[in-house]
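BUG-303 | component: ligand-complex export | severity: low

The export step for farnesyl diphosphate jobs runs without errors, but we want the raw record kept on the ticket for reference. Input record follows.
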Amino acid sequence: MNSTVLKTDLALPADWRDFVALTKPRVMSLVVFTGLCGLLAAPVTLPPVLGFTAILCIALAAGAAAALNQWYEADLDALMKRTAKRPLPDGRMDRTAALHFGVGLGAFSVLLMGLALNWLAGAVLAGSILFYVVIYTIWLKRRTPQNIVIGGAAGAFPPLIGWAAATGDVTLLPLLLFTLIFLWTPPHFWALSLFVRSDYAAAGVPMLPVVSGHRVTRQQIALYTLPMGVAAVAPWPLGLTGWLYGITASALSIIFLALSLRVLANRATEPAEMGPEKKLFAFSIVYLFAVFGALVADHWLLA
Ligand code: HEM
Ligand SMILES: CC(C)=CCC/C(C)=C/CC/C(C)=C/COP(=O)(O)OP(=O)(O)O
């Protein structure tokens, strides 16, 4: 954080809606869904109360990480159109409230996970909060265009945490699910960054399209999509899932690849209303919901 005077220094008392907004609930929905699928695809079925507690802990931890991210970067959020109306830059909440909320929620989620489920799940949950806040937000985001490649690992942990909560260990399938989200994050984010490039440029954030331009970003998107598809399909030939998952993941990965090739072929330097980048970004979200949904359907219907 720099020492710029922000509206947040003069903030009004926030109401509960501002605290909900601080948890980035729409992004959290996919984080929680992948965590739930990791838990439901595990070979151990938890009693419903424990399963619910584990998912609640993942949701609270993701909300805590989002709050701490916004506590640290209120100055950046104030400079970008997309984020200027968030509770801190808009002056509806002061930074200390966001910090206390984030630390409290994060500590509570980790303790509850450790005590109610197991400490492996608790430790990985703590690690993912710290990864997002310290490695991505504080260390890498303002320094390198590789910020989201490395920092994106934070968002890849939830299925592994769900699995660890159910079984107390981590095997090849949750590691492949981690790898899938890890490789999905760059195309997901770089597609979006191509059409909000001017926001990042105005805020001085070194995202790939700002530093290296459209062409390189589009090449990198296509480059990550290939191993992402391999990681998505791999559990099927390895015998870790059945045909239902395998066929769904293959079909969706082919569509993802086709959309990324359209992005690669695009030469436009101004964002279009429904250009290939917007389509790929929207599809990236549907893709992850559908692949993880298929994993659970496969496990429960074919097991
Ligand atoms: C470093 C990694 C990531 C970065 C930088 C990133 C960045 C973004 C950004 C900037 C948005 C625009 C929406 C907003 O204003 O909040 C977005 C949307 C979204 N992201 Fe990501 N993302 C990352 C990883 C993830 C992960 C791991 C997930 C879930 C597994 C995810 C799920 C979503 C969803 C569901 C949306 C749509 C939200 C909406 O409908 O408004 N993202 N992402
Ligand atoms: C369990 C647990 C702790 C999960 C964490 C999940 C996680 C790391 C999700 C990352 C998603 C996300 C919105 C990144 C935004 O980057 P940004 O902060 O640069 O986006 P912004 O520009 O919208 O603020």
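Assignee comment: Attached the raw record above. Residues 276-302 form the longest helix (27 residues).
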